[in-house]
Amino acid sequence: MATAVIPKVYKNYINGEWVESRSGKAFENRNPANTDELIGMFPASTEEDVYAAVDAAKEAYKTWRLVPAPKRAEILFRAAEILVKRKEDLARDMTREMGKILAETRGDVQEAIDMTYYMAGEGRRQFGQTTPSELPNKFAMSVRQPIGVCTMITPWNFPMAIPSWKLMPALICGNTVVFKPASDTPLSGYHLVQVLNEAGLPRGVVNILTGAGSKVGNPLMKHADVSLVSFTGSTDIGRHVSEACAPGFKHCQLEMGGKNIIIVMDDANVDLAVDGAIWGGFGTTGQRCTATSRVTAHRKVYKEFVDRYAARARALKVGDGLDASTEMGPCVNESQLQTVMDYVNIGINEGARLAAGGHRLESGPYARGWFHEPTIFADCDPKMRIAQEEIFGPVVSVIPCDNLENALEIANGVVYGLSASIYTRDVNKAFQAMRDLYTGIVYVNAPTIGAETHLPFGGTKQTGNGHREAGIAAIDFYSEWKTIYVDFSDKLQRAQIDTSGFARLGD
Ligand code: UN1
Question: What number of CA atoms fall less than 13 Å from residue 375's CA on the CB side?
């Protein structure tokens, strides 16, 4: 008799304890490369769980904010060391729940390690300013203060890196956290919290709960005791987050869609551009906000580029990300695969030329997963939906262009503004593109993906709402300025009014 495999049941982490949801219900986390593999059951949390988590974070904030930042940093440093030791296991589990290939999940964990070390260093910085006062015997300075309880709502495409971008700067600044990971990748979020817990984070400082956006995300964003919401996901949901935060004036940081482009000029190294467009377009199965989903190539090199690009895409090995020879994994779930298939139909109906791929893979080794061929549409018009809308899958639209001005117009002619790239050997063209591409990130002779943790990350237009993640920009978001004046003159001095015997312009 076959023995039934009992799935591992995971819990929420609230106020320093692993607890079941008040709902008593759970949802499944399955491997997108093989849906027969049940990775675990995770709590389908409710509003009551949200209240408990926010209460815990609010209570913990009273003491955590007073822990000296260099001491908070020691905990982060220890967490980074644990992540280093467990990198391989964490990466394997991430590939199992999310599908991207092992080399990339290792990179995802590495990005979390980088961010954790980097923010640990910020424990001894978080610099403010000291500056002269306009009045004698008066001292002026600015210091950073924490904000309170922060909520993080994170996506499935970078299940550990993106939570680390939010958690680590929040913690080093002295805030406490309620974290809701994506329901497709709760295990990596769970692992990150477990590591922080082992590193010695006091109870209640980070709380994690899993469940539906409507049941967990909504009440979290609206809770009166939550001061800040950081969200990464689609522009549609981001708009909703922004609206939910507005009545309470919660600080709100949104990292949303992209329609990132590679420009290939006629003087480019075409082989290098093909390499870049393969990695940028099909790395992470095209499921990055920064993915190269458009290429515009100068007419002089257009045919050469498209032929080589299509040939390389057709040769990519699609499969289970745990297999070392796989170059592209599955889509994360059935609905994402359906979106990809819908856009392939849209592209065909719009009259674009299918240069590579275009089909779901579903026989043999693909039978139990959400696989799709790497797909390239050529001869696209920049106004086509496949060249305008975010697909978030392995589909790239290639558009011919006449010159740099035309390329820049195509590049900027979308509602998003995350990342853009130019391949050229002409320094003048490179600098013009660096100036005129209206995006948050620009690459020269490199694809649109691969941002590093110590520089600002984010985008313009409908990609973001003006904030940036990572780098020092993250410290700016997770702290507030407090300006402090100390008057040691022992008398009333009135700014802008008393000149105290000093000559002053305008007196
Ligand atoms: C994302 O796609 O949401 O720049 C994040 C990159 C990665 C992060 C991407 N470091 O491609």
Answer: 29
